[in-house]
């Protein structure tokens, strides 16, 4: 968890879509932040090394063989008043001094009160209004970045003697600036209560910024204001004891700065927009606390005061900067791009990303756990220069429209030449010779007693038998049982679907017809047909007995996330990253309805009675549709983050949703109103489900726990702990007696829903478990993993 004020401030204001928030907006000795600056972040401030758009003569030092980057003036745009008076994170409520909520600080001499009732929060006050300067996407920048990047690295490390990782070097392409400002960050260690800021800003000519802070023990509120140009209050360590006591009083603290101004000059940089690059083979050095010989830390010297931690007693101390790694959300994108495997098995040599790519991808709001959200959505990448890849943001917006596309095929061709054997196997290569089947028996219930007690792994009397099969090459993404338990079907990265015997796990058939990674799979209610969806938007319906394609469902342009048959088997619903949900005739393939969400749709289940279809996705909403008419019945609005999961109760009267905002909500299908709001997790909820009898609901979160609650009262019944492993999936057994989950530790854990006790951990997978499903009779469990294997676990009974 980030605890440094500069990280809390930047992270909390990131979703406001103004860029990266600087805890130190004031300029350094080299002047204000400008478009074209090449530099780095340190303790909440941006430090320029040089400006890539200026000539060599205009600068003190530049890299060897320096060549300036020429920006077309048509790409530079100014937007006035992007922040009129104040800006706060969603967790902070602002009031004017009179008590009216949400009032902007417009009038000269007006004041605001900021209240934070959550763990973290941030705000900034500006005067006058802040303006944005930004360079629009430039098709030559990626090439310039790639060809000059090594030169910048050597300049930083060899000439400036900076101990800095190369991927922390950034190119600024946008700024948001004002003249006068005050800002603050909240950190709460205890629940209940609130932290309050009261701020008043006088006329610019008077140059006053006054802050009063009230808080209680266990809470920290830090704030800064524009440094005085003529005289500064001394640092806390140089103050008299009486003054210091006033600043650290547990009930209030005040700070008043006076400065002389000749008029507003918007040179204080509140936010920056920037690009970064990361190469696969670079050695990542650790950034040390020192900023380097050519720049001064804005918190040292005499050009501004440090951020102050206002405590609630003698145990509270002023926070020291330089002790926590800088939060930088662009790093998550760079790592995702470098980890991304192309269709032919190769990977990009380098990645380039900008902070606006996050806003383009997550246009409805930045998720709390960005890496997990990227893995969940799996956005594709594209090549923007020789060996350099970026997120294919054109799939969600227009970010890269100006990049020339014809070169991509040449780059991909070169990548294929590097790895000629990569790609999906031929039919002969994927034959019986590649299949593996191993059987393992675990018959010692006592093993569970040796597990850590904190996850309730006490013995239940169960044991299990496992069969491991490997008929795919590449990770196995999805799995499904036929309703009668006769078959298991799995889909994988090798573009194939494998049919197995549901009892023995023996190989029966390999379906070949897709030309991209399988993403979702489902049997029809009678078990005679199989629906599959792939990464390229293709969906197929197969005849299980005839071993052939019955219907090709064409229309989606991007990944099909979900495919499901209606309860009577006459219809099929598909949901896609392209923002559409489609209902098809399962026999003819005719499209019956299409719902255009214009956002990524993650799931679309039918209600058990077949009357309704629910959808959820990145627009913070879930919706209920009439299957017969295609009309929207209800929009379920209450969440403040991406809705990852949705499920109906057995009677089709209630529906549950799980969201990135860490909540789960049970709604009335008839009225569309919330019935129960569950806030059992501190982190995003990935999976939710009703128990088969509808009396309980589960919610699985990346807080490493699964919660079991009463679906009518919301009462917490059990907490199942994954022991420091992220929860990838969680399901009820059809009889409701068991709950199973797969985690980041590659283990399967199963608990009794009645007692809360755990079976012995099911171990064997060597990579992430993507999906697990119980058999219809609840005595077997199938798991699919990125290690390329499928495991069939048979529960041998118990006495719980």
From TrEMBL:
Keyword presence, Repeat: yes
UniProt cross-references to Pfam families, sorted A to Z: WD40
SMART domains in the record: WD40 (SM00320)
Alphabetical list of Gene3D superfamilies matching this protein: YVTN repeat-like/Quinoprotein amine dehydrogenase
Keywords for the protein's UniProt record, in alphabetical order: Repeat, WD repeat
Biased composition (Basic and acidic residues): 432-441
Cited InterPro entries: WD40/YVTN_repeat-like_dom_sf (IPR015943), WD40_PAC1 (IPR020472), WD40_repeat_CS (IPR019775), WD40_repeat_dom_sf (IPR036322), WD40_rpt (IPR001680)
WD repeats: 469-510, 511-552, 553-594, 594-635, 636-677, 678-719, 720-761, 762-800
Protein name as it appears in the record: Uncharacterized protein
């Amino acid at each position: 968890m980030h605890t440094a004020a500069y990280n809390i401030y930047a992270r909390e204001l990131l979703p406001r879509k103004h860029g990266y928030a600087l805890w130190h907006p004031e300029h350094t000795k080299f002047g204000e932040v400008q478009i074209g600056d090449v530099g780095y972040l340190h303790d909440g401030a941006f430090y320029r090394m040089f400006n890539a758009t200026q000539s060599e003569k205009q600068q003190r030092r530049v890299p060897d063989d320096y060549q300036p980057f020429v920006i077309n003036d048509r790409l530079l745009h100014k937007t006035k008043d992007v922040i009129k008076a104040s800006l706060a994170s969603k967790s902070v409520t602002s009031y004017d001094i009179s008590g009216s909520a949400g009032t902007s600080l417009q009038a000269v001499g007006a004041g605001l009160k900021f209240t934070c009732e959550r763990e973290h929060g941030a705000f900034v006050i500006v005067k006058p209004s802040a303006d944005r300067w930004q360079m629009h996407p430039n098709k030559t920048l990626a090439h310039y970045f790639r060809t000059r990047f090594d030169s910048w690295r050597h300049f930083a490390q060899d000439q400036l003697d900076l101990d800095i990782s190369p991927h922390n070097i950034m190119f600024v392409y946008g700024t948001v600036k004002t003249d006068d400002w005050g800002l603050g960050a909240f950190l709460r260690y205890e629940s209940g209560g609130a932290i309050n800021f009261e701020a008043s800003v006088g006329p610019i000519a008077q140059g006053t910024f006054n802050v009063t802070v009230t808080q209680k023990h266990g809470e920290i509120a830090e704030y800064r204001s524009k440094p005085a140009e003529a005289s500064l209050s001394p640092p806390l360590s140089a103050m008299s004891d009486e003054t210091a006591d006033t600043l650290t009083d547990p009930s209030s603290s005040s700070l008043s700065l006076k400065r002389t101004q000749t008029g507003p000059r918007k040179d204080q940089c509140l936010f920056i927009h920037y690009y970064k690059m990361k190469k696969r083979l670079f050695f990542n050095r650790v950034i040390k606390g020192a900023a380097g010989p050519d720049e001064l830390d804005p918190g040292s010297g005499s050009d501004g005061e440090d951020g102050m931690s206002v405590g609630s007693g003698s145990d509270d101390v002023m926070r020291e900067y330089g002790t926590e790694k800088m939060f930088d959300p662009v790093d998550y994108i760079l790592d995702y791009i470098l980890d991304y495997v192309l269709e032919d098995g190769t990977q990009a040599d380098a990645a380039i990303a900008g902070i606006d790519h996050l806003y383009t991808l997550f246009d409805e709001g930045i998720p709390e756990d960005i890496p997990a959200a990227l893995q969940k959505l799996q956005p594709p990448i594209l090549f923007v220069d020789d060996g350099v890849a970026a997120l294919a943001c054109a799939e969600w917006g227009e970010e890269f429209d100006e990049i020339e596309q014809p070169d991509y095929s040449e780059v991909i061709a070169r990548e294929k030449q590097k790895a000629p054997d990569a790609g999906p196997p031929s039919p002969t290569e994927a034959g019986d010779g590649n299949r593996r089947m191993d059987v393992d028996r675990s018959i010692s219930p006592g093993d569970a007693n040796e597990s850590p007690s904190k996850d309730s792994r006490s013995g239940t009397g169960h044991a299990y038998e496992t069969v491991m099969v490997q008929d795919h090459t590449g990770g196995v993404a999805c799995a499904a049982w036929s309703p009668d338990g006769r078959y298991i079907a799995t889909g994988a990265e090798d573009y194939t679907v494998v049919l197995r015997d549901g009892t023995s796990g023996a190989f029966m058939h390999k379906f070949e017809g897709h030309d991209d990674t399988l993403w979702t799979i489902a049997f029809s209610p009678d078990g005679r047909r199989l629906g599959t969806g792939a990464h390229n938007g293709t969906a197929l319906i197969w005849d299980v007995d005839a071993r052939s394609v019955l219907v090709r469902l064409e229309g989606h342009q991007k990944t099909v996330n979900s495919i499901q048959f209606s309860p009577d088997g006459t219809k099929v619903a598909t949901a896609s990253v392209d923002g559409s949900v489609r209902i098809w005739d399962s026999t003819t393939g005719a499209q019956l309805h299409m719902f255009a969400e214009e956002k990524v749709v993650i799931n679309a289940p039918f209600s058990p009675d077949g009357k309704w279809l629910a959808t959820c996705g990145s627009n913070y909403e879930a919706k209920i549709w009439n299957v017969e008419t295609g009309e929207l019945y209800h929009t379920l609005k209450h969440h403040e983050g991406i809705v990852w999961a949705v499920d109906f109760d057995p009677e089709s009267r209630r529906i549950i949703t799980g969201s990135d905002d860490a909540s789960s909500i049970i709604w009335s299908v008839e009225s569309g109103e919330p019935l129960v709001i569950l806030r059992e997790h501190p982190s995003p909820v990935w999976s939710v489900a009703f128990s088969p009898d509808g009396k309980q609901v589960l919610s699985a979160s990346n807080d490493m726990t699964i919660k079991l609650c009463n679906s009518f009262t919301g009462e917490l019944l059990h907490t199942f702990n994954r022991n420091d492993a992220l929860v990838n999936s969680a399901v009820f057994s059809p009889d409701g007696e068991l709950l199973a989950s797969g985690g980041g530790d590659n283990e399967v854990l199963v608990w009794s829903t009645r007692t809360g006790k755990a079976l012995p951990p099911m171990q064997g997978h060597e990579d992430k478990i993507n999906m697990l499903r119980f058999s219809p009779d609840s005595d077997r469990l199938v798991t699919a993993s990125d290690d390329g294997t499928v495991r069939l676990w048979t529960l041998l009974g118990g006495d719980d």
